[in-house]
């Protein structure tokens, strides 16, 4: 399974670079446009969450994207050393707005 990796500081300045990495993966491995678009949306959301929440207390750290591709699947893993998400500590969602 071919693997591609990118590690950069987890900050707003590098979000566009993480998305460019996903575009490169999609192009290199010939993903269909709709698959590439959905993959980019998922990675954008996850990477933004790492930047805004995992290191929100002022700490700095890296975010690593690892893309594994084979004939059946594309798997992009995000790795960081930031504060983990604790769903039990999160406020309930506001489902009434919108």
Helices and strands, with pairings:
Layout: E1 3-9, H1 15-28, H2 33-54, E2 62-69, E3 74-80
Antiparallel strand pairs: 1-2, 2-3
Helix pairs in contact: 1-2
Summarize the structure.
37% of the residues lie in helices and 22% in strands. It is built from 2 helices and 3 strands; from the N terminus they run E-H-H-E-E.
Q: H/E series, N to C? A: EHHEE
Tell me the distance between the termini. 43 Å
Indicate the structural class.
alpha+beta
Task: Figure out the total of helices.
Answer: 2
> In what range is the share of β-strand residues?
15-25%
- The radius of gyration computed from the alpha-carbon positions, rounded to a whole number of angstroms, is 15 Å
What general outline do the C-alpha atoms trace? globular
| Poorly predicted runs of 5 or more residues | none
* Largest sheet descriptor: 3 strands, antiparallel
In spatial order, strands of the major sheet run: 1-2-3
Strand tally: 3
Helix content: 25-40%
């Amino acid at each position: 399974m071919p693997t591609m990796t990118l590690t950069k500081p987890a900050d707003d300045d590098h979000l566009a670079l993480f998305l460019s990495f996903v575009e490169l993966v999609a192009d290199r491995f010939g993903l269909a446009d709709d698959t590439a678009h959905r993959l980019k949306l998922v990675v954008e959301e996850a990477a933004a969450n790492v930047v805004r929440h995992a290191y929100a207390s002022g700490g700095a750290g890296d975010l690593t994207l690892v893309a594994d591709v084979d004939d059946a699947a594309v798997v992009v893993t995000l790795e960081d050393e930031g504060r983990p998400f604790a769903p039990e500590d999160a406020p309930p969602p506001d489902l009434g707005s919108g």
